[in-house]
Structures are given as C-alpha cells and as structure tokens.
Amino acid sequence: MRVSRMVEALLFASQSPLSAAELARAEEGLDEERVEEAVAELRAEYEREGRAFGVFEVGGGYQLLTRPEYAPVLERFDSVPGSSRLSSPALETLAIIAYRQPVGRAEVEEIRGVGSGGVLRTLQERELIEVVGRGEGLGRPLLYGTTRRFLEHFGFRSIEDLPRPDELPVVLAQRTEEGKPNAA
Amino acid sequence: MSDAALAPHPSGPDLYQVELERFQGPLDLLLHLIRNQDVDIFDIPISRITRQFLAAITQVERLELERAGEFLEMAATLVRIKAQMLFPRRTDDGEEEDPRAELVRRLLEYEHFREAARLLEEAERNRSRLRERGYVEVRPAPPLADVPLHTEWSEVWEAVRGLAARLAEPEPGYRFLGRPVRMEEKIELILGMLQESRRVEFAAVVSPWGTRMHAVVSLLACLELAKRSRVRVRQAEPFAPLWVYRRRAEDEAA
C-alpha cells in the first residue's frame, strides 16, 4: 500500500489537522520525513487533477480543506453557521496575547485602556486562549497564552507564522524580541 | 475633576463631532482625534486635543458605568498633562520632562496592537475561505405530507403549452377521429403507474398516444387527482418536466 494513499485516507477521515508525527504512527517504519514526502505527492496530484480541495498546513498539522475559490459555493449551500468571525475587541485582545504571551489581564487592560474581563472569558470559552501559568506579584495573576485552536482559526502553521514583527511598526517589534525569548 | 471641565464646549472651529459608541475606549478615541487631523503624535497640541476629547465625551452618560469611567479617567489624565505643560518639571539629572511622554508611548503601543489586530482579521478572513469536512450539512428535507402543492396554475399551463407544442400537428387534409378519451381512464392509468413507482413524469403518461386530446384529458385527470389529494403535482421551474407524485397515504397503502 502506498504511503501517500494511507496519508490520504487518514486526512480524509479526520476532521481536525494531523501532524506529521501523528500520521507517522499509522504504520511501522514510517517516519515524519516519509509522511512529508507523501503529503507533497498528494499535493502535486491534487494540483494536477484540479481538485476542489488541497492539503493545507494549519495549527502544526495537515488538513484537507476546500480551495478558497469554492468558498462562495459552500456559503450558498447548507453551510453550518457558528464559525463566526471575531469582534474587534476580541481581535485586539488576541493580538496582545499572541505577541506578549504569557500575559496577564492587567497588562492587556493597560494596553487597551479598557476592561477586558468579558473578552478574555469569551476567548477562553472559544478555546483560542488558555491559562498557561501564574505571574509574580499580588494575587499571583493568571497568565494567558494562545492555543492550537488559535492557530487553526487563523490558518497559521505555528506561532512563528504570526505577521512578522518587522511588518509591524517599531515599538511592537522591540517588545516582542524582549518578551519572547523562544520566538524565532 | 471640576464640573467645568466636563461641560459641553461651545461649538468652535475645531469642535470635532464623533459618535462615542463607535470607539472601543479612550485610547481609540484619542488616536482617532490625532490621526484624523494630521496631528504629530510626538508633539500633540494637548490643549486642543483635550478640548476635543472633553467635547466628544459629553455623551458619556449614554455609556454603561464601566465604560464611562474609562473615558473620564482619560479626561482626567489629559487635564493633568495640560496643567503640567504650564509648569514643566525637571528630573533629577536636570533634564526637562515632557508630561506627554507616557501618553504618547501608550498611544503608539495601542496603535501597534490595533494594527496587529487588523492583520489577524485579514488572516481570519483568508482562513474562512478554506473549509474542512463537515462544514456543509445537508438539512433534512421536510416530510412530503407537510409540503403544499408547489405548482401554480400558470406553471401548469406553461407545461401544457410546452407539451402541446411538442405534440405532432395533425397532417393537413384529413383527420382521424379516435374514440373519445375519458378522464376516468386516465385517472386509472395514472394511479396504476404510481403503483409501480413513487412518481411519474407527465410526459410518460401522455407519450403512448401523443395527441393533444390525450394530453388535455391526462392533465385534467392529474388535477382531479390532486384535488382529491391522491397525487401531488410538481414542477421545479418553468418548462421543467412536470412530475406527478404519489401522496403519502398512497405510499403507506402500497
């Protein structure tokens, strides 16, 4: 059985992204590199045949998704509601958390200049952020970070996929370098 | 803060009318005032901006308490900065301190995150154009019994006219008069055909004879059966084939 066919079957049957490591567990002797080759084969094949879907990389995994040009067709059909877009306050709060993580509520509110408890709760309920630790200081405040679901929602492969700091104005870029030693 | 500071400013040349609800918070409003008037953010004319800010938040009572407090706090900050501009302070090493520095830092920081939020929104929009399996969910079709007769008279007549046009015109010169066609026969024929399948195309009812008379009587039979709730007549769109469906009661009987 060809590896690309096995990978295809797994991607087809799964509703959420599967990482190369997860896919490699399908068969003994498979490794991540072989899986990545198989994914490349599938991509080339779908491209050649002009398929309506492709293998996309989101949230650190591979997923079969329909191509963007078919979005209008799907939206006209019986689409499932609820995959709604985020509000401006939610996006603003998420941006702060994404670049400053781990970050507490006080800092978010300081930057936005408005109370953000409700927004944080909503983002947590939608599993876009999670508590990743507790800060120093009074009451040991909860610190938030983004989740894999966050990456999936925005179509980022990993947190390094966030719009590059150099695409953003200067002050933010400096902050991100200081604040995130593990960022690329 | 004194009441005078919050009193509505008489409209002047630089009174800036804004809708307070549009703004996410005081920083958003302040940035709007600065960016929309081409003001140098590193040299904010604090007097003018403060006046405009105060004028804008005279509608503040329309906001809920928490949000109102946030705008008033900023108003207080602006008034304090304005006062400090009049009496500059020196730091320990003798340098003159700009009382606006901290506000400018906050505004720039906020603006940068607002830009980051815009980029996120763009990514979100692109991502929402790719769909995973399960996005489309076919809604169950409503049960047949609940469906009213879809066809309107005009549609039925369209179908009849279409059919009549397709039926061969009789050869000129002579006519063969067949025996009269009875509606009861057609009713039996249609019900008989519906014994074998759930639906039958109207053209199939007529095709063995293919004359105008048979078509007209068959149609009348269909309509009579529809009236008696024995069949349902359905045409998806003008000129589409006309279908005769067995009603649910017939389904159960079959």
Word description of this protein:
The complex is a heterodimer of chains A (184) and B (254). Chain A has helices at residues 3-13, 20-24, 32-49, 71-76, 88-100, 105-112, 117-125, 148-154, 170-179; strands at 53-58, 61-66, 103-104, 129-134, 142-146. Chain A has 184 residues and is an alpha+beta fold. Chain A folds into 2 domains: 3-76, Orthogonal Bundle (Arc Repressor Mutant, subunit A); 88-179, Arc Repressor Mutant, subunit A, CATH 1.10.10.10. In chain A, the strands form 2 sheets. Chain A has a 3-stranded antiparallel beta sheet with strand order 3-5-4. Chain A has a two-stranded antiparallel ribbon with strand order 1-2. In chain A, helix 5 (88-100) crosses helix 7 (117-125). The longest helix of chain A is centred in the first third of the chain and has 18 residues, at 32-49. Chain B has a 3-stranded antiparallel beta sheet. By secondary structure, chain B is mainly α. Chain B is built from 10 helices and 3 strands. Chain B folds into 2 domains: 3-121, no CATH class; 145-169 and 177-253, Structural maintenance of chromosome 1. Chain E (Arc Repressor Mutant, subunit A). Chain A binds chain B through residues 12, 15-16, 56, 58, 63-68, 70-71, 74, 77-80, 83, 85-86, 88-89, 91-92, 94-96, 98-99, 111-115, 153-156, 163, 167-169, 171-172, 175, and chain B through 24-28, 66-67, 70, 74, 105-106, 108-121, 123-139.
Quick structural overview:
The complex is a heterodimer of chains A (184) and B (254). With 184 residues, chain A is of the alpha+beta class. Chain A is built from nine helices and five strands, in the order H-H-H-E-E-H-H-E-H-H-E-E-H-H.
